[in-house]
Specification:
Four Helix Bundle (Hemerythrin (Met), subunit A); mainly alpha; 3 domains
Length: 436
């Protein structure tokens, strides 16, 4: 099997080996997470194949309908990853011997058969992606053939269901106890217990993309996982809206929270898929791909975490978002520091623009170098690139007549950037006061 996937191999370990082990420290928990990842990727392939030719294409690009090579390449990369994960599970054989696999009647023979199907698909796909003409007809035939072959294997649906079941518990302890409670619950708690697992599945799928970002892995294949997340969010909002139509008390606080969550999820969905991910499949520069993928992941992940924090506060008003998601504390500290430093730099830039003398220019250059060494890493990658270009241009410009217009443009950009930072969800309770 390894020979079939030796070209452009994907290191599965980078996505999973750094995870915390269970209380026993053994490989079972580790391989269990790998099995969940396999279910996540298979579900992504399913959603991407069903979505059709227009997945993540730019509606303004007329040529997109004539070339399907990018879809073939994305699926090819995902098939390679799945094949390597299957090999990993078969080599260790820990998960297939676990009660979780036994409960779902998944045997080593089932994974071996899946491996053979993936190998054949990779060989065919490798030939297809080297073809000079791949249009909508070829893509339609290939996606129907591929998913029909995968769908015929019971192990595929079992792995996807297993990932979904495990994903439903991907919640902070306070919320997971509520969703899994066997004790009698009041009406509002019962309603939340039904909805929380759907939020958890979305966060679990997003966590796989988050690990890819942290490990600096090739990110285009993550579009397949985003394809599944798109379906999950649509199903979530549809489910919430159906529940709201039958909600007994429209004046209840939970009704307002659910209504707001449904609306916010719809807005974030449109923002991410119509802007950040649109046309990403055809992009080539790695920095642009990383920047847009990072923004899309952050908008969805932090947005849904905020919604869960709001639900938790209905149950216990004393709960803070930092108690549920420690990453928000880090994000808050970074955002406060970043906002303070951007304001300081903006003041120095404005002073240098008004009085471009040696002392002010030296002060400006020192402030810019300090910014580049420290707090710039707290920006989104796409903003980091722009700041770096401005700083480089300012540092190499020697003539005042050339420098002043650059400082004017940079000052205007910093004002816009400060506004975007102030919109971060973690800063809602921390309004900016320039006098401080």
């Amino acid at each position: 099997m390894s020979a079939a996937v030796s070209e452009n191999p994907v290191d599965v370990r980078s996505a999973s080996d750094h995870r915390a082990k269970g209380p026993g420290g053994g490989p079972l928990v580790h391989d269990d997470e790998v099995a969940v990842d396999l279910g996540v990727w298979l579900s992504g392939i399913e959603s991407f194949l069903v979505a059709g030719h227009h997945s993540f294409t730019d509606a303004a690009d007329a040529k997109a309908t004539q070339d399907s090579s990018k879809e073939f390449r994305l699926v090819h990369s995902a098939l390679q990853r799945c094949s390597l994960i299957v090999s990993r599970l078969l080599i260790t054989n820990a998960w297939t011997a676990s009660p979780a696999a036994a409960t779902r009647k998944i045997t080593p023979n089932d994974l071996t058969e899946l491996g053979y199907v993936l190998r054949d698909a990779i060989l065919l796909s490798d030939g297809l992606i080297h073809s000079t003409d791949l249009g909508p007809g070829e893509w339609k035939a290939w996606r129907h053939l591929l998913w029909h072959r995968l769908d015929s294997l019971a192990v595929v649906s079992s792995l996807i269901q297993y990932a979904e079941e495990r994903g439903e518990s991907f919640l902070p302890d306070q919320l997971r106890k509520l969703s899994e409670s066997v004790e009698p619950l009041n009406a509002e708690q019962s309603e939340l217990a039904l909805i929380l697992p759907r939020f958890a599945r979305i966060l679990k799928w997003l966590s796989v993309i988050g690990r890819m970002l942290e490990a600096d892995e090739p990110l285009k294949p993550a579009l397949l996982i985003f394809s599944r997340v798109n379906e999950q969010i649509f199903e979530l909002t549809t489910y919430i809206n159906n529940r709201l139509q039958r909600f007994p008390d429209e004046e209840a606080e939970l009704f307002a929270s659910l209504d707001a969550a449904s609306y916010t999820a719809s807005i974030e969905l449109k923002k991410v898929y119509a802007q950040e991910l649109s046309g990403l499949a055809k992009l080539r520069p790695s920095p642009s791909i990383y920047a847009r993928m990072e923004t899309a992941h952050c908008l969805l992940n932090e947005g849904f975490q905020q919604m869960l924090a709001g639900f938790a506060q209905l149950v216990d008003p004393k709960i803070e978002v930092f108690d549920l998601f420690p990453n928000f504390r880090v994000k808050l500290d970074q955002s406060l520091t970043l906002r303070r430093e951007l304001w300081r730099v903006a003041e120095v830039v404005q002073a240098a623009e008004k009085n471009p003398q040696k002392q002010e220019i030296e002060k400006l250059q020192k402030a810019l170098r300090e910014l580049m060494k420290g707090t710039i890493r707290f920006l989104f990658y796409k903003d980091t690139e722009t700041v770096e270009r401005f700083v480089e241009e300012i540092l190499v410009t020697k003539q005042n007549k050339d420098l002043v217009p650059i400082l004017h443009r940079f000052g205007a950009y910093l004002d816009t950037l400060l506004g975007q930072v102030n919109l971060r969800a973690v800063l809602v309770k921390h309004p900016f006061d320039p006098k401080r």
